[in-house]
Amino acid sequence: MTVWRALGGRGYLGSAWPWRAVAYLTSGALLGAVVLVVIVSGAVAGGALAVVVVGLPLLVLTALAGIPVAAVERRRLRLAGVAPVPAGQHRTPGRPGLPAWLATRLKETATWRELAYAVLFGVVLWPLDAAAVVVGAVLPLSMVAAPALVAAGGEAKVVKLWLVDTWPGAFAAAALGLVLLAAGAYALGVVAGARAELARVLLAGKDADRVTELVRSRVRLVDAFEAERRRIERDLHDGAQQRLVALTMTLGLARLDAPPGPLADQLAAAHGEAERALVELRELIHGIHPKVLADYGLHAAVADAADRSPVPVDVDLDLPGRLPRPVESAAYFVVCEALANVARHSGADRAEVSGGYGDGRLVLRVRDDGRGGADPDGGTGLTGLADRVSVLDGRLSLSSPPGGPTLLHVEIPCRPIPPEDPCG
Amino acid sequence: MPADSSGRPLRIVLAEDSVLLREGIVGLLTRFGHEVVAAVGDADALLAAVAEHGPDAVVTDVRMPPGLQDEGLRAAVRLRAERPGLPVLVLSQYVQRAYAAELLDSGDGTGVGYLLKDRVGHVEEFVAALAEVAAGGTVVDPEVVRQLLRRRRDPLARLTPREREVLALVAEGKSNGAIARTLVVSEAAVGKHIGSILTKLDLPPADDTHRRVLAVLAFLRA
């Protein structure tokens, strides 16, 4: 429900919407005045003190003022019932610590757009909010109060212009006030709606809606992809694999019964072929979706992948039990692809998978001592995995200077699944 | 001919959810003179059948209904906790160090086997492995051993290629005589290699085959 739809429907005057419009505009006026004071005093004091260096942090803080203002403004949008802007326009810093956070914030456009909004809010928007509330609510209310004022003081000055000192005049003013109050309620709804839409557009950037929808559809695609992999793995396991095992068993028994000779030789050859098919099928199924990942989680699956790697791999992970399935899956396939690249291209003697869980995110690093110079855009392998990681709001970065070493870094925000959950 | 490798006749409970494979394994075991007292299709039925029949050995698949996860392995670990000394042979579609480790850690590690399901195709080897497990031995699939050996950690680097070969066979649960036959050397030479391996890995010398296997596996898993 938005204020727009409420304006078109019946019973608007009796609903909470006029009150919400007044609340939105009043809180905007108060907040905007505070923002004006903070930004002006921050800029003035910071500019004056810049010569003695202490002013510089103050200026930086003032430049960042748009961030909390925008956060509050996004929340306030709910009052007007306008679709909230998705949060998370800011990037996650690559490293922990204040310097990295500051560097990230000062370099991204979202910070400056939000500062621009805060300045606009402090200079232009809040006076308009205040004016709308005064015209649409305060003045009509003062007219409605005219009879009471006349009763108390013998006369009332309506809207500071007309002096009313008679009862008929006072009641006429009150009646007019009621009409204006009703009209003002509608006007305030329109103003609040427009004001909220303006804030939404300015805070969201132009493509936010489309991006949100794209992100959603990408998440759906990845989920569907994952489900399909599991289905294929299950079908192959329950069907072809069982039949092949049964076939090798039948051939094995037949070999016991066959008298030595050409028949026995052919049975042996058939037996060998069936076994090779079984081995290939097993590897194929493992590549599609490894059972150990589903049963024992990321640590065991990474150890398993390390065991399979032709280059010796050390594994040093510190994980608290199980993580959400899509996270485990994405992290596992990133490690597999990285180890495959190490084996194929790096010429490394050793590789290491390290990392752990902390501060609400899974961090994995794959390092090798090879010749470096890996190009993330060269193959689709890592690009596809970076997409998969970014769907989970994670990040994947590759550092591979010529001469090495190559370091792949993956970060995915997530929460561990409580250990007592058997379905995890 | 096959009766030699099958040892004494055993009363077996078999758990395998694929009907095709279950019937096949029943036929195979019967052929080698064993009696399958119950052939079931899920983990709960396995636990019930063992309670009812008190078999000499259990053969179970890892993945079974209802969850199609690792119910068979869970049931095997539980059976070994409830009935110490009950030989259990677990068949797995995949080589997983984690499965093998969990199974070997259950009970005292004797009378237990972990084989790749493909091995049932090598009917005689499969039946021999079952007899070994039923006699209290430890059998681990060569593929698992190969995976463990591939983690080239420093102490293993001290072994000669021949010693690594012997180590792999020890870890599969083979006796000195069997290793000697596989490598076509004398039993005394095998004994010497094993002594040298155990020394290099700082493991206590052991006569008993399964204890030797366990020591080696414990070292490899560490």
UniProtKB/TrEMBL annotation, chain A:
<keyword id="KW-0902">Two-component regulatory system</keyword>
<feature type="transmembrane region" description="Helical">
    <location>
        <begin position="170"/>
        <end position="192"/>
    </location>
</feature>
<dbReference type="Pfam" id="PF13796">
    <property type="entry name" value="Sensor"/>
</dbReference>
<dbReference type="InterPro" id="IPR036890">
    <property type="entry name" value="HATPase_C_sf"/>
</dbReference>
<dbReference type="InterPro" id="IPR025828">
    <property type="entry name" value="Put_sensor_dom"/>
</dbReference>
<dbReference type="GO" id="GO:0016020">
    <property type="term" value="C:membrane"/>
</dbReference>
<keyword id="KW-0472">Membrane</keyword>
<dbReference type="GO" id="GO:0005524">
    <property type="term" value="F:ATP binding"/>
</dbReference>
<keyword id="KW-0597">Phosphoprotein</keyword>
<dbReference type="InterPro" id="IPR050482">
    <property type="entry name" value="Sensor_HK_TwoCompSys"/>
</dbReference>
<feature type="domain" description="Putative sensor">
    <location>
        <begin position="24"/>
        <end position="203"/>
    </location>
</feature>
<keyword id="KW-0812">Transmembrane</keyword>
<dbReference type="GO" id="GO:0000155">
    <property type="term" value="F:phosphorelay sensor kinase activity"/>
</dbReference>
<dbReference type="GO" id="GO:0046983">
    <property type="term" value="F:protein dimerization activity"/>
</dbReference>
<keyword id="KW-1133">Transmembrane helix</keyword>
<keyword id="KW-0808">Transferase</keyword>
<feature type="transmembrane region" description="Helical">
    <location>
        <begin position="49"/>
        <end position="72"/>
    </location>
</feature>
<dbReference type="InterPro" id="IPR011712">
    <property type="entry name" value="Sig_transdc_His_kin_sub3_dim/P"/>
</dbReference>
<keyword id="KW-0418">Kinase</keyword>
<feature type="transmembrane region" description="Helical">
    <location>
        <begin position="115"/>
        <end position="139"/>
    </location>
</feature>
<keyword id="KW-0067">ATP-binding</keyword>
<dbReference type="Pfam" id="PF07730">
    <property type="entry name" value="HisKA_3"/>
</dbReference>
UniProtKB/TrEMBL annotation, chain B:
<dbReference type="Pfam" id="PF00196">
    <property type="entry name" value="GerE"/>
</dbReference>
<dbReference type="Pfam" id="PF00072">
    <property type="entry name" value="Response_reg"/>
</dbReference>
<keyword id="KW-0238">DNA-binding</keyword>
<keyword id="KW-0597">Phosphoprotein</keyword>
<dbReference type="GO" id="GO:0006355">
    <property type="term" value="P:regulation of DNA-templated transcription"/>
</dbReference>
<dbReference type="GO" id="GO:0000160">
    <property type="term" value="P:phosphorelay signal transduction system"/>
</dbReference>
<dbReference type="InterPro" id="IPR039420">
    <property type="entry name" value="WalR-like"/>
</dbReference>
<dbReference type="GO" id="GO:0003677">
    <property type="term" value="F:DNA binding"/>
</dbReference>
<keyword id="KW-0805">Transcription regulation</keyword>
<protein>
    <submittedName>
        <fullName>Response regulator transcription factor</fullName>
    </submittedName>
</protein>
<dbReference type="InterPro" id="IPR058245">
    <property type="entry name" value="NreC/VraR/RcsB-like_REC"/>
</dbReference>
<dbReference type="InterPro" id="IPR011006">
    <property type="entry name" value="CheY-like_superfamily"/>
</dbReference>
<keyword id="KW-0804">Transcription</keyword>
<feature type="domain" description="HTH luxR-type">
    <location>
        <begin position="152"/>
        <end position="222"/>
    </location>
</feature>
<dbReference type="InterPro" id="IPR001789">
    <property type="entry name" value="Sig_transdc_resp-reg_receiver"/>
</dbReference>
<feature type="domain" description="Response regulatory">
    <location>
        <begin position="11"/>
        <end position="132"/>
    </location>
</feature>
<dbReference type="InterPro" id="IPR036388">
    <property type="entry name" value="WH-like_DNA-bd_sf"/>
</dbReference>
<feature type="modified residue" description="4-aspartylphosphate">
    <location>
        <position position="61"/>
    </location>
</feature>
<dbReference type="InterPro" id="IPR000792">
    <property type="entry name" value="Tscrpt_reg_LuxR_C"/>
</dbReference>
